[in-house]
Amino acid sequence: MSDKAEAAESRSEDSVPAYSWYVLGVLVVVYILNFIDRQILSILAVDIKRDLQLTDGQLGFLGGAAFAVFYALFGVPLGRLADRWHRVRLLTIGLLLWSAMTALSGFARNYLTLSLARMGVGVGEATASPTAYSLISDYFPARKRATALAIYSSGLYLGGGVSLLIGAKISKVWDAAYPGGGIAGLVGWQAAFLAVGIPGILLAIWVASLREPARPAAETVGGRHPLVDFFIDLSMLLPPFTLYHAMRRGPMAAVVNLVMAAAMIGFALIMIELTGNLPQWSSIAFGYYAVFSWASTLRRHDPATFSLIWGTPAFICTALGYGLVSLGAYALAFWSAPYAETVLKLPKDQLAFVLGGSGAVSGFLGVILGGRLSDWLRSRNPSGRILVIMFGIVAPVIPIWIGFTTEIPALFYLMNFLAGMFAATALGAAAATTQDLVLPRMRGTATASFFLATTLVGLGLGPYMVGQISELSGSMRIGVLSLIGVAPISLALLIYAYRTLPKAEATIAERARAAAGE
After folding, report:
1. Rounded to 5 degrees, what are φ and ψ at 335?
2. What angle do CA 272, 274, 280 make, to 5 degrees?
3. What is residue 419's predicted lDDT score, i.e. its pLDDT?
4. What distance in Å separates the CA atoms of residue 358 and residue 36, rounded to the nearest whole number?
């Protein structure tokens, strides 16, 4: 680690400057809009399903993999770019892109055009967390990092909750004013997409005014422009360039890459045959193959980063363990409103107000309390933060079971609140743990790798799994309750992470030097 990097980490005894809190506040606003644009689909799902004649499985794809695969894959090179380029500029560009694609969702006329727009939202939003995590890690000392990241992450829950309120209100008012469709034949759910997409363009001007923290010169890699490295990294994910990179590593690497491609094609074909959902499993198989190809190439181009991320079991188990927490959280966030509307027959206005408000409050409380608790536990136990992630997977089980078996609306709302709050406690702890396991120059890449699990596992599979099981069983209730089955798997991964984390964190610099051949 460079002297400047060590000096930055030594700020743990200093107070946090006011400007750091200001930057954090702006980033929270960005993340709120991020999740409004991402989650508004949930409250509009029943209307979209009716107008575009979709199945629950197709809705699950739109709410999950259509967004998640492109979010995850572009997040990898964008995370690397965040480690090398101007992060404020990158976030500004991303915000403009995802806001424009959200607005374009309002002009969708069929399943294909809405899917393409959601993919575009995923590409734009992939800039947000790698840049924000990296900025926050520079602006806040290690002892405050989990708290700062938890505050940032509160935007997830605030945005998700507000999206229900905004979506329901705009849709209702528009449809009441224009029963047969308004300007250009747009109906309520289309107007809602336009209404939340356009303000992002104005917010981008505010974001562009933020100061970029200075980086140590040692963190600038090579003499190439960072954007050149971005396109090189992107080529590591996209066939046929993936095979080209494998061939450059040697014949055996090319064979392994082809075997992985064949395995993913076989997996996709089997799942498509079983479920009949071509877009879902084509996207997931492509995503997993692309990540494998990128990680294999990263091993050659940046062995130190590969070693501290993909070569560290504590990192992988933490990311996958939390990925399964997020699987349940994303599925509940997407399906709670359609479930309440179709199974419990609750009016959309009421459920949007209660679920939206309670979701924002429960998520905010959970992520802040979880962040504070994880920092406190971390100061007493190197693996203390893992305990909070374990709580986030175990504690929601009973509320989910009670909430989605009761016929009493008040009990459903209460259990939904508790499940959301308990699951939210894990996010700050998981994010801070992955940041602590890498060197400062690797934080953007570590964030992107962490979000591969939360998106390709959590968002990519969670909403779809519930929709597909609901479709096959004929019961949305059974679909939601199936989420409980992921808890034992997550817990096993986190127990392993708890045991291996102290040694992994204590040997970061040593393992990075060994991997780089120094």
Report:
1. -95, -15
2. 35
3. 95
4. 15
